[in-house]
Amino acid sequence: MSTDFQTAREALGARLRELRTEAGLDGKDLAAKLGWQTSKVSRLQNGKQTPSRDDLTAWAQSCGQGDTEAELQGLRAGLEMKQRHRSWRRQLADGHRGRQEIAVRQTEKTTMIRGLEVSRIPGLFQTPEYARAIFEINADFRGIPATTEAAVAARIRRQEALYDPEKSFRFLVCEAALYHRACPADVMAEQLDRLYTLIGQRRIEIGIIPFGTQLRRTAPHGFWIYDRRLVIVETISEELWLTGDDDLALYERAWEWLAEAAEYGSQARRLIGRARASLDPL
Q1: Cα atoms in the Cβ-side hemisphere of radius 13 Å centred on 60
Q2: CA 275/CA 176 separation, integer angstroms
Q3: Less packed terminus of the chain by CB within 10 Å, N or C?
Q4: Which domains does the chain have, with CATH numbers?
Q5: Long-range contacts of 55-61 (CB under 8 A, 24+ apart)
Q6: Which residues share a beta bridge with 234?
Q7: Comparing C-alpha atoms, which of 271, 270, 255, 87 is closest to residue 179?
Q8: How far apart are CA 81 and CA 90, in angstroms?
Q9: Is residue 166 within 8 Å of 201, Cβ to Cβ?
C-alpha cells in the first residue's frame, strides 16, 4: 500500500475520531448506535480500514453531525484518488524488486492479460539481459538503488505464467519497440529472437503495429488490462491503477481499435525479422 494512500486514510480516521469525541461517545457507544462491532470503529478511526460511503453517512449522523458528511465524503474521494495514482518515487524507493513482486501476484490471479507497449518489449516476453538493461537505466534515471538481480529474477519468475494452460496473453507492440534500443545490439538481437519464437504459441497472441499504418486511434502510451477488473497505465512520474467500469471500457476500446491495425502470424514475424536483420553488420 502506498505511503500517500495510508497517510490520507489515517487523516480520515483521525477526523472520524474527532467527530466521535465531540459527540461525547466512546468507541463502544458509537458501535452500539451503528450496530457494528467495536473492532470496526477502531479500525476506521485508526486508519486500518477504508470506510464506505454508507459508513461515513452513518458515522456523521450517529455523532449528530450530519452536516459534516460532505466533508467526510470529500476526504474519501481524495483517498480514492491517491489509491489510483501510485508515485514511482514511493514505489521504487527501495529498488525495483518490490514492484516486480506485485506484478507477479497480479499475473497469478489474472486469466487474460491484454497489453500495449509503444517503445519497449513487454516485460512478460523479455530476456534476462534485456530486462537487466531496462532496470539499470531506470534506476540511474530515478536515482534509486539498483536491485537489478532480484528484480530480474522476479520478472523471469512472472513469465512462468506463459505456460499456464488457464491463462492467455494478447499483446500489441508498436514496431518502434523493435528498433528502440536501451541495450547493446547483441542483447537486442537475442530479445528479438525470443519475440520471434513466441509468435504463434498457444494462448499467446502478439500483434505488431507497423510503421506507416493508418490508425483509428493513436497509441500515446502503454497500458495493461488484467481481465476486466484492472487497467495499469505507466507515466514517467506515476502509475495509474484504474478499476472503474468507464475506464475499463475506454481502454478496452483503445486496445481493440489498435488491434485492428496490427500484423499477426507470419507478417508479424516478417516485421520482427526485418528489425533483427538491421542489427547484423554489413
Answers
A1: 17
A2: 9
A3: C
A4: 3-86 (1.10.260.40), 92-277 (3.30.870)
A5: 58/34, 59/16, 59/19, 59/20, 59/30, 59/34, 60/19
A6: 239
A7: 271
A8: 15
A9: no
CB environment 209-220: b (16+ within 10 A), e (fewer): bbeeeeeeeebe
Q: Which three cell numbers stand for residue 205?
A: 497472441
C-alpha 94/C-alpha 54 separation (Å) is 37
Strands (E), the chain: 85-87, 112-117, 168-174, 204-209, 223-226, 230-234, 238-242
Could you identify the residue written with the cell 507492440?
Answer: 173
Predicted model pTM = 0.73
Q: CB burial class (10 A; 0-12, 13-18, 19+) of residue 208?
A: buried
Cell numbers 452513518 label which residue?
58
Residue 239 dihedral angles phi and psi, to the nearest 5°:
-110, 140
Residue where the block lists cell 516485460: 123
Per-residue pLDDT of the chain (282 residues; tens, 9 = 90+): 445 666 677 878 888 998 999 999 999 999 999 999 999 999 999 988 888 889 999 999 999 988 988 888 877 766 665 556 566 566 666 678 788 888 888 899 999 999 999 999 999 999 999 999 999 999 999 888 877 788 899 999 999 999 999 999 999 999 999 999 999 999 999 999 999 999 999 999 999 999 999 999 898 899 999 999 899 998 888 888 888 888 899 999 999 999 999 999 999 999 999 999 999 765
Selection from 103, 81, 84, 82 nearest residue 92 by Cα: 103
Which residues are registered as beta bridge partners of 171?
Answer: 115, 206
